[in-house]
Amino acid sequence: MRLTILYASLFLVSGTCVLALVYVVSAGSSTIAIASPSPVGLTHAITTPGGLGGLLPAPRIHIQLSPGILSGALVARQHSVDLRRLLAISGLALAVTTVASALFGWIAAGRVLRPLRTITTTARTISAGNLHERLALAGPDDEFKQLGDTLDQLLGRLEASFEAQRRFVANASHELRTPLTLERTLLQVALADPNASAEKLRSTCEELLASGKDQERLLEALLTLASSERGLDHTESLDLSQIADHALLTPRPEIQQLGLQIETRLAPAPISGDPPLIERLVANLIDNAVRYNHPGGRVDLRTAADAGRALLIVANTGPLIAADEIDRLFEPFQRLGADRTAPGNERHGLGLSIVRAIATAHDAAVTAAPQPEGGLEVTVSFPATEKH
Questions:
Q1: Buried-most residue among 2, 16, 157, 292 (CB within 10 A)?
Q2: pTM
């Protein structure tokens, strides 16, 4: 309706302007002389009273009217009549065409907005339960088609997010339920044994404490993942090389147990970010490279600034990884091979998912590539900033 009123109003205004212009031009145009039917002038005799009180005969005064004066008056009168007729006919035509333009505008607006009504109707039917549906607009590549394609892409991302959320909740429930079941079993066994010694009870308590610590680590990882996905509260100027060097000071028993060789090439790489989150990102990458390694393996840690980007590269030796498995490793609670069901050892499969969430919060890009001889190389590219 608004488009129809707009079309009709624009037509009415433009038509009125054209009518006014025609009227002004017609009113100001020069008249065309009409030829008199007789070349002889018309004579009109006027008799005046006689002189000396009527004693003398009354003279007759003859006034001759020029044919040009008479024809000019007739032309002017006819011209005025023609202007009024032109104005009346044009006004009537403008009114009729305005109504017609409103009708045609209604039809045209309906046809133009039909794809938008289709988008609205389809979007109303799509909910969390059927995010797989798409608008799939056909037709020329116009603005409505581009809008439909954009909404389809948005629905695709929403579907992926909802699916990831469902998997996350299911996996988190499983990961939390398993240790709780273990703790309940340990307590039931200890209480069911009337002859349980103090040493056995102490051992059960130690197992419960270890299980509780494992749950604390899981909850801490979940909180870190949630906070990093929420975004950054504040940022500071940091240097990836200093954070990486400090992260290597954290004791990691697996390094001695597996006899791993740590190689570092730490060049200045200034960035702007949240210090605790960046420290967690670097620590997770190092922990992942250490834990998923083989005896006598190697861990490479590098930082650099290249082409306006600050790079953090962590590579390790280890089991062979298929290229199609890389994306799955960045999903929560996803692990490789037998580690998918391995209990304990902090291997909940949240390390790389936390890395990706923190990187996304810092507008950084995370890429991973399998090593030809086994292992993984993970590169995090941050927007570089000048070091203050």
A1: 292
A2: 0.56
